[in-house]
Amino acid sequence: MADKSTQWTSSPVDALRAAASPRVEDIDFTVTPGFSGSKSDGTALLAERGEVLAALQEKLYAHGRTGGNRSVLLVLQGMDTAGKGGMVKHVIGMVDPQGVDLASFGVPTQEEKQHHYLWRIRKALPRAGRIGVFDRSHYEDVLVVAVHDLVPRQVWEKRFDEINAFERELVDEGTVVVKVALFVSPEQQKKRLQERLDRPDKHWKYNPGDVTERGFLPQYRAAYQRVLDRTDVDHAPWFVVPADRKWYSRLAVTEILIDALEKLDLQWPTADFDVEHEKKRLAES
Ligand code: ADP
């Protein structure tokens, strides 16, 4: 079989890094940066790479179970229908759920509102040996909050430095932080919302507020641009992922996660018992 990985003409980790990506207002949502293959190539490669991801995740889990402190945090941001839920189902779904700490963040509850915005985030951080996934995150506190003036500008302006320092702290404690912003075109978003309306089995996913938010697209673009400008740092990089083609965005995020796990350079824990002796005991039992 041909090595499908060669269809990556450049590493997605380089091709999608925010610093190398177009400005948000210039993003082409349909392109597949770094990947020259077709949809069927991409889908086949996703299955193959899923196995690599699962093996790396098992190693991380084993590391955590034997006292290691490393973890990975994947932050997923994107407007409604950008595919955050599908990413959890189809990418994170390829690994053992025991090793995943998943958290999603909606409108803060009464209790959450009484605390600092990072309070609920800190409580949801991945345990050692786990892949943590944030479906929305502390970035809502500089995105939706800025777009809708939920706090004054001078309050959210300070949050960028605070977020950088917070993520630095996570990294220093052993967490690899990777952040993915999924960008769907307004046309594709309309199609996906239309499908939710047309299919009774998708009505539960439809939120009338999503159509309202479409009216704030320019403000969201500006807010995302600020986030990328202020918080794409080497210790916690942002990846800008065009999301009109779901097969591509899922493949790209799989590669980004594989890269994060490979960078941990973990080894399988060595046995703390005498393997040969145990083999003998088992044979004799
Ligand atoms: P989703 O739309 O992702 O399926 P939910 O229906 O639970 O999930 O709602 C997410 C909503 O919560 C989004 O509109 C998001 O902007 C909003 N939200 C998340 N965090 C905050 C926050 N800190 N302040 C205000 N709104 C927030």
Q: Can you describe this structure in just a few lines?
A:
The chain is built from 13 helices and five strands. It is an alpha/beta fold and 285 residues long. The protein has a five-stranded parallel β-sheet, with helices on both faces.
Descriptive overview:
The protein has 285 residues and is α/β, with parallel strands linked by helices. It has one domain: Rossmann fold. It is built from 13 helices and 5 strands. Adenosine-5'-diphosphate binds at residues 80, 105-108, 136, 140-141, 144-145, 150, 207. Residues 80, 105-108, 136, 140-141, 144-145, 150, 207 line the site of adenosine-5'-diphosphate.
Identify every distinct bound molecule in the structure, by name, code or SMILES: adenosine-5'-diphosphate
- Can you summarize the main beta sheet? 5 strands, parallel
Strand proportion, as a percent range, falls in 5-15%
Name the structural class.
alpha/beta
CATH superfamily grouping = P-loop containing nucleotide triphosphate hydrolases
Low-confidence stretches: none
Could you give the order of the helices and strands? Answer: HHEHEHHEHHHEHHHEHH
Which strands sit side by side, in order, in the main sheet?
Answer: 2-3-1-4-5
Number of strands: 5
Number of helices: 13
Mean pLDDT equals 96
Tertiary shape:
globular
Proper CATH architecture: 3-Layer(aba) Sandwich
Radius of gyration: 20 Å
Helix content: 40-55%
CATH topology: Rossmann fold
**Count of discrete domains:** 1
Mind telling me the CATH class?
Alpha Beta
Distance between the termini: 44 Å
